[in-house]
Amino acid sequence: MTSTDKEIKILAIETSCDETSAAVVVNGRDVRSNIISTQIPLHTLYGGVVPEIASRKHTERINQVIRQALDEAKMTLSDMDAIAVTYGPGLVGALLVGVSEAKGIAYAANLPLIGVHHIEGHISANYIENKDLEPPFLCLVVSGGHTHLVRVLDYGKYEILGRTVDDAAGEAFDKVARTIGLGYPGGPKIEKKATLGNPDAIDLPRAKVGGSEYDFSFSGLKSAVLNYINKAGMKGETVDPADLAASFQKAVVDVLTDHAEHAIDSFGVSEFAIAGGVASNGALRASMEEMCDRKGVKFYRPSPILCTDNAAMIGAAAYYEYIAGRRDGWDLNAVPALALGER
Ligand code: KG4
Ligand code: ZN
Question: What's the pTM?
Answer without folding.
Answer: 0.96
